[in-house]
């Protein structure tokens, strides 16, 4: 029985260590679908393999492989929280694993025959054992610490397409020019095919994955940046509160002069303006969010930015504190930086809302931006306008990463001088 679809299924799992699955029982269902597909095509493939090579046999096998590939892409997309593009690349990598394991099996059987070693073994058992060893080896070396990333795929779209095309050519080359040749030619062909497929697989992974170690390094750099900003902001806020308290004490003392004159409206208004600093204190029901919003509110008060926020902090209880602080910290940092660049003081406004809508967490942020600093979008994400692109733009990428971590959807757009960000995240039951 042909096991291509089943092998493809397990080959894909090699690169799914960082994938989050929708339901535990979806995977066995996908495996059953792969087995049923192979079982349905078993009589046809057996007939094709036993006959001569022709255009009809090549077409039939190609359709079988294509159907197997399409079935696994759909199954992976339905079973995991990934995009279609990510599922497509994972399936391509899984097919490379399947093809490599077949080449290893064919090479081993050819070598045994060439040396006239007489072994009474079940070829199917050997094939399965070698496939398992190849999967374990690739998983141990690279599969366990990489994650397919749609943004990297789109950024290196040409490389990915070229590598996938080369892999397809390798499969066709093996099927048409190698498998029916004399044993010595087959051995050289399988070896060459394996080397080329390995190279193409490595290029595809380099072009479309995030290494976990690199992701951790970026996260550490982001955390260090936030800590530095937090320290500077906290120091400025303490200084501002001390100054305001001193001013309030003096103003209250001067409200009623020694000569008994009543306080003027201007004097009362000045006291109110100094007390207004305490309007920046937030009580949303989530302590971590309260601290962050209060810090940003004090910063806005000091820099002439109107900051309004309506937040249901209790709906954020499912998020880790570090993730919450990173997500909202980056959202507000980007918004405040943009608002400060607006010359019209009446448009230095940042609006944030966090609410629960049924089983969804809905986050929405809006702010004005200066025309000369209008964001430039690429693949739905604003690109940094700073010259040092390696160390900037991390905030936007972090927002996207945090959203995907909680299986949410992120949208950003800029229209008529207003930048808006929307995030929808399913709230765990």
Automatic annotation (TrEMBL):
Question: What protein is this chain from?
Answer: GHKL domain-containing protein
Q: Native species of this protein?
A: Bifidobacterium cebidarum
Question: Membrane spanning segments where?
Answer: 26-42, 63-84, 90-112, 124-142, 157-178, 190-208
Keywords, comma-separated and alphabetical: Membrane, Transmembrane, Transmembrane helix
Q: Does the keyword Transmembrane helix apply?
A: yes
The record's listing under Pfam families reads: HATPase_c_5
Q: Which GO terms describe its molecular function?
A: identical protein binding
Domain named Sensor histidine kinase NatK-like C-terminal: residues: 319-426
Listed CDD domains? HATPase_AgrC-ComD-like (cd16935)
**Keyword flag Cell membrane:** no
């Amino acid at each position: 029985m042909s096991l291509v679809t089943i092998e493809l299924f397990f080959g894909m799992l090699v690169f799914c260590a960082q994938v989050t699955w929708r339901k535990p029982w979806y995977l066995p269902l996908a495996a059953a679908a792969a087995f049923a597909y192979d079982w349905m095509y078993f009589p046809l493939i057996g007939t094709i393999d036993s006959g001569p090579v022709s255009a009809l046999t090549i077409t039939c096998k190609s359709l079988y492989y294509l159907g197997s590939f399409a079935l696994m892409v759909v199954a992976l997309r339905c079973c995991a929280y990934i995009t279609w593009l990510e599922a497509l690349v994972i399936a391509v990598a899984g097919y490379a694993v399947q093809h490599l394991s077949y080449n290893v099996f064919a090479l081993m059987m050819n070598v045994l025959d060439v040396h006239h070693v007489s072994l009474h073994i079940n070829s199917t058992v050997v094939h399965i054992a070698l496939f398992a060893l190849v999967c374990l080896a690739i998983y141990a070396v690279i599969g366990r610490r990489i994650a397919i990333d749609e943004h990297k795929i789109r950024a290196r779209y040409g490389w990915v397409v070229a590598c996938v095309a080369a892999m397809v050519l390798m499969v066709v080359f093996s099927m048409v020019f190698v498998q029916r040749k004399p044993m010595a030619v087959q051995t050289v062909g399988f070896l060459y095919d394996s080397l080329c497929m390995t190279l193409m697989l490595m290029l595809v992974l380099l072009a479309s994955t995030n290494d976990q170690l690199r992701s951790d390094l970026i996260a550490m750099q982001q955390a260090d940046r936030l800590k530095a900003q937090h320290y500077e902001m906290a120091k400025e806020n303490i200084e501002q509160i001390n100054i305001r308290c001193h001013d309030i004490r003096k103003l209250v003392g001067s409200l009623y002069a020694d000569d008994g004159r009543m306080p003027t409206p201007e004097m009362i208004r000045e006291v109110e303006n100094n007390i207004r600093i305490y309007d920046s204190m937030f009580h949303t029901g989530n302590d971590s969010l309260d601290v962050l919003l209060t810090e940003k509110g004090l910063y806005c008060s000091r820099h002439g930015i109107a900051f309004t926020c309506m937040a249901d902090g209790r709906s954020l209880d499912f998020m880790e504190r570090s993730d919450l602080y990173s997500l909202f910290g980056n959202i507000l940092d980007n918004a405040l930086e943009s608002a400060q660049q607006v010359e019209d003081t009446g448009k230095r406004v940042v609006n944030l809302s966090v609410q629960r809508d049924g089983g969804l967490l809905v986050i929405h942020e809006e702010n004005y931006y200066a025309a000369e600093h209008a964001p430039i979008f690429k693949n739905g994400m604003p690109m940094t306008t700073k010259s040092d692109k390696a160390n900037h733009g991390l905030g936007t990428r972090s927002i996207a990463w945090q959203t995907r971590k909680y299986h949410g959807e992120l949208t950003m757009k800029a229209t008529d001088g207003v930048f808006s960000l929307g995030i929808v995240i399913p709230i765990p039951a």
